[in-house]
Every structure is written in structure tokens, then in C-alpha cells.
Amino acid sequence: LVIPGGLYNSLVSQIQSATGTHLSTFSICPSSISSMPNMEVSFKDTAGNSFSLTITPNDYCPHMTDSGTTHRRFVVESNANDPILGTPLLNSNYVVFDKANRRVGFAPIANCGSSVQSNSNAVVGGSSQQRQGSQGLSSHAIAGIAAGSTLAVLGTVVAIIALLRKHRDQAHLQDKSVNI
């Protein structure tokens, strides 16, 4: 998670006020993360409506293992350029990247222990597509996920068939070389 310097400094200051701990990027988070602030990330959907995604301390202080020891690490960085929302946001949402229409769709992952919260599914960017309803993923998002999964399985099958054919052809060449 990369955010502009002013926001980074504000977050670190709020954490220090709440916990008494000064954090820097990848430092160990305090054990009392429940007192740490949530981060609200606001967007406008393609219809111009505002919506927010909440990134909780569980997301920006995930469990990480280092030399066999597991700690929560502060995975927020400061950068003067464009922010990068990254893993803390992507792990807790279905995110559909619609490259053809230059837009990104978000839908919260339900019942999976997700700590990112959103009031509804939403689409950012693109043309005049309306925000998706709060009843789940749109049929287009589901079709995209299904198509991607199908292509992954199909690609695996094609790779296995190619390897089997290569093995068969090599065995056939070895048989011919013995008969010569």
C-alpha cells in the first residue's frame, strides 16, 4: 500500500496517538491493532456517485513470517507519486479489471473473514456504465471470472496434451533409431 507523504504521516501520527508506537514501513505493528485507525479510500463510480472502501489495521498490518517468527508488519509506504492500493485492498475484494472499457469493478468478498468493507459493488472509470447493485457481482463480472477460470483450465489441459505428444514423439523416434 503506497500513499502520498502527507497521508502517510497522518496515519503514522494517528497510530502513535492510539498505541504509543511509532511505525515505519515494514516495522512490527503493536499487538493492540484494534485501536489503530481504519483507512477510507474514496472513489467515484462511472455514474458519478461516491463510494468508499475501508482498509482496516488487519489489512495494512498483515501477519508475515520472518526467520520462522510471525509478526504483524506495517505494509504502508510513502510516495509522492501515484498511490498504489495493492494487496490490502485486492485480497479482500473481487476486483475485475475491464481493460477494453478502461474501468475497474469492486465487490466485497462475503463471508471469508474479509475486513475490507464496502456498501455496494462499484465500477470505477470507463464510460457511462451504472454502479452495480448491492446484491452481489453483476452477471458480466461473474461471466468474466468464469471465463478466466475456464481459460486457465483449458490452458493446463493443452499444456498436458502438448507434453504427452512430445513424450510420445520422442519415444517413437527412439524406437525408429533402434530399428535402423
What attributes does this structure have?
180 residues, alpha+beta, three-stranded antiparallel sheet, 4 helices, 10 strands
Topology summary:
Layout: E1 2-3, H1 5-19, E2 39-44, E3 50-55, H2 57-60, E4 63-66, E5 69-72, E6 77-78, H3 86-90, E7 93-98, E8 103-108, E9 117-118, E10 122-125, H4 139-179
Parallel strand pairs: 1-6
Antiparallel strand pairs: 2-3, 3-9, 4-5, 7-8, 8-10
Radius of gyration: 23 Å
Q: Quick one: how many beta strands?
A: 10
Poorly predicted sequence stretches spanning 5 or more consecutive residues: 113-121, 126-137
Task: Report the principal-axis shape.
Answer: extended
Largest sheet: 3 strands, antiparallel
Q: Report the average pLDDT across residues.
A: 76
Largest sheet: spatial strand order: 2-3-9
Kindly state the percentage of residues in helix: 25-40%
Count of helical regions: 4
Q: Decide which structural class fits the backbone.
A: alpha+beta
Q: Assess the beta-strand content as a share of residues.
A: 15-25%
Distance between the termini: 64 Å
Q: Please write the string of helix (H) and strand (E) elements.
A: EHEEHEEEHEEEEH
How would you characterize this protein structure?
By secondary structure, the chain is an alpha+beta fold. The protein contains four helices and ten strands; from the N terminus they run E-H-E-E-H-E-E-E-H-E-E-E-E-H. The protein has helices at residues 5-19, 57-60, 86-90, 139-179; strands at 2-3, 39-44, 50-55, 63-66, 69-72, 77-78, 93-98, 103-108, 117-118, 122-125. It has a three-stranded antiparallel sheet.
